[in-house]
Amino acid sequence: MISGHAAGFGSWAAGDGDWEFAWGLQDDAESIGAIQRALDRVNWIDTAAVYGLGHSEEVVARAIRGRAKRPYIYIFTKCSLLWGADRRIRHSLRADSVRRECAASLRRLAFIAPPPLGPGPDS
Fold this sequence. Notes:
Blueprint: E1 9-10, H1 28-38, E2 44-46, H2 55-64, E3 74-76, E4 81-83, E5 89-91, H3 95-108
Helix pairs in contact: 1-2
């Protein structure tokens, strides 16, 4: 059973400023420090691949690296929002897209990838 706090840490702003829905330029070291301080009180982080076009997940990975004193840190990420070379956001819930997005998020978050998800209804 997942046992989480009512409050967690939202990492949208940690995505930095070079994408369509950015909060402006951010300092990665400050974002990492904020995440680490938050984890002294909460045990989950909200992120998404689209936050900074992958950058937020990378910052989260750097922030949690080596946090052995907190054995359970839950990371919630999302899929379906994609970007192209133009850095514009589009939407896809196709099974093949979700599988690719999950694998990419796990790589950015520095997790060992589980076996691929089974085929979906539109694969």
